[in-house]
Amino acid sequence: MIRLVISDMDGTLIDRDEILTDKAIKIAEELKKKNILFTIATGRAECMASDYVKKMKIQIPYIACNGATIMEGDTVLQRKQIPLKGLRALMEKADSMNMSLVYTADGKESIYRETPWIRRQQKEFNRYFHIHVPTEYEWKHLMIDKLMIMDETREGAIAILEDMCRELPDIYGFTRYTNKSVEVVSRDSTKASALKSVATLLDIPPESILAVGDHQNDIEMLRYSGIGAVVGNATEDAKHAADYVASGRCIDGVQEIVEKFCEITV
């Protein structure tokens, strides 16, 4: 019996337009009527996830920054951070290749400099306005939640950064997203590790969890849960790791999954 549904955000609950539809809100409402808890696990920092959490009326802990952060409302339950000093060469290399850098510290996001991609994000989604190049003191002492490097051209150059990530000290972990980006967090921060903590807090065993996702950073969470399901637009790796692959993309796939495994009608 499913007692908890946990879903990824981007590419799952929301599409490229990042609009939370009425259908998503309805799914959360119908699950609540069945006494099934609902929450999210996202790569976003809490500053970019909190509005969605409020709209879906999520009152239990949720996962941000790919597992580095666990929030309950405005309260931080967990924040695993990494030292910026080990990332300087990686960041400066990415910047020299005209890639976009967004780093998160204590839930707040900063950009290294404006790029065409950053300017479009500012215009389309009203974000990434705080520009800050770390001072020498910050390079040595600042702790961050997450680093994201985005390659707008998506022609394969991100592989150079991935190779550099492989050479980082053991405290760092990373995820590559096809040819578009890499994200760096603490090595022991994953959606699965954070989900284990959330499940312990809620006293819910793995076999009673339905996890829904679409990408590489969801795979461990899918495997940890009693049922791991992906939407139709999921990557091939995520599909291979899932127990069920929906035919619909994004929110339509989520609807298909919860109706099948939670016996609700949206």
Automatic annotation (TrEMBL):
<dbReference type="InterPro" id="IPR006379">
    <property type="entry name" value="HAD-SF_hydro_IIB"/>
</dbReference>
<keyword id="KW-0378">Hydrolase</keyword>
<dbReference type="GO" id="GO:0016787">
    <property type="term" value="F:hydrolase activity"/>
</dbReference>
<protein>
    <submittedName>
        <fullName>HAD family hydrolase</fullName>
    </submittedName>
</protein>
<dbReference type="InterPro" id="IPR000150">
    <property type="entry name" value="Cof"/>
</dbReference>
<dbReference type="InterPro" id="IPR036412">
    <property type="entry name" value="HAD-like_sf"/>
</dbReference>
<dbReference type="Pfam" id="PF08282">
    <property type="entry name" value="Hydrolase_3"/>
</dbReference>
<dbReference type="InterPro" id="IPR023214">
    <property type="entry name" value="HAD_sf"/>
</dbReference>
